[in-house]
Structure formats: C-alpha cells, structure tokens
C-alpha cells in the first residue's frame, strides 16, 4: 500500500512531518507486510506518478484534506510525538493514528 506524508527535509530517517502549507516534499511510503519497503520524495502529492494512493497522513486533523479525499485516499492525522516518517509509520502499523472526517 502507498502512504503520503507532507515533510520538511528529504532524509527518510530525519524528515519531520509538517502542515501541508509548510511541506518541502511529500514522502511516498510503500508499506507491505508490516514493513516500510521504500520511501521516495516528490514536490507535491499529485506529482508522484501513482494512479492510486491508499492513505495520507497529515500533521493535524484540522488541515484541509478534501482534495486528498476526493482522490480516494483515507486521510489520517498523526498524534503528538509522531514527528518523523519512522514514528508515523510505527503509529500506522499499530493503528495509533487519528482519522480525519468531515
């Protein structure tokens, strides 16, 4: 499955999740069998080249996510302390992220 995360930085270990308006890149994480398989970086969420992305994880639940939902993604929000890609993916794996709904 593919998961998008707005980030600052381009190091898979150090990049910090940030609000959409502050994102320098979007990390596209390939997640399979409970493990991160790969991470690639893109200038914007709609420039990944993928036709289907399963989830987006945002910095907070109050961000505008309608465009992501309209593209078919389930949108989640990180919890406090889940600041890096690794911590966000650990939260995803254990269902410790919050759903965003309107």
Task: Explain the layout of strands and helices.
Elements: E1 2-8, E2 16-17, E3 25-32, E4 35-42, E5 55-58, H1 66-70, E6 74-77, H2 85-93, E7 98-99
Parallel strand pairs: 1-5, 5-6
Antiparallel strand pairs: 1-2, 1-3, 3-4, 6-7
Write structural notes for this entry:
The mean pLDDT is 95. The protein has a single domain, classed as 2-Layer Sandwich (Nucleotidyltransferase, domain 5), CATH 3.30.420.130. Helix 1 (66-70) links the parallel strand 5 and strand 6 (74-77). Strands 1, 2, 3, 4, 5, 6 and 7 form a seven-stranded mixed sheet that branches. The two termini are 24 Å apart. Helix content is 14%, strand content 34%. The protein is of the alpha/beta class and 102 residues long.
Name the features.
single chain; 102 residues; alpha/beta; Nucleotidyltransferase, domain 5; 2 helices; 7 strands
Write a short abstract of this structure:
This protein has helices at residues 66-70, 85-93; strands at residues 2-8, 16-17, 25-32, 35-42, 55-58, 74-77, 98-99. It has 102 residues and is of the alpha/beta class.
Low-pLDDT ranges: none
Task: Give me the Rg, rounded.
Answer: 12 Å
- Count all strands and give the number: 7
Q: How far is it from the N-terminal to the C-terminal residue, by CA? A: 24 Å
Structural class, from helix and strand content?
alpha/beta
Main beta sheet, described? 7 strands, mixed
Per CATH, the superfamily is: Dinitrogenase iron-molybdenum cofactor biosynthesis domain
Report helical residue fraction.
10-25%
């Amino acid at each position: 499955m593919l998961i998008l995360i707005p980030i600052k930085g381009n190091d898979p270990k150090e990049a910090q999740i940030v609000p959409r308006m502050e994102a320098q890149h979007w990390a596209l994480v390939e997640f399979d069998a409970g493990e991160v398989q790969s991470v690639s970086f893109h200038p914007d969420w709609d420039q990944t080249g993928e036709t289907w992305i399963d989830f987006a994880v945002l910095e907070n639940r109050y961000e505008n996510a309608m465009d992501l939902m309209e593209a078919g993604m389930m949108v989640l929000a990180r919890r406090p302390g889940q600041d890096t890609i690794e911590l966000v993916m650990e939260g995803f794996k254990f269902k410790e992220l919050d759903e965003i709904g309107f």
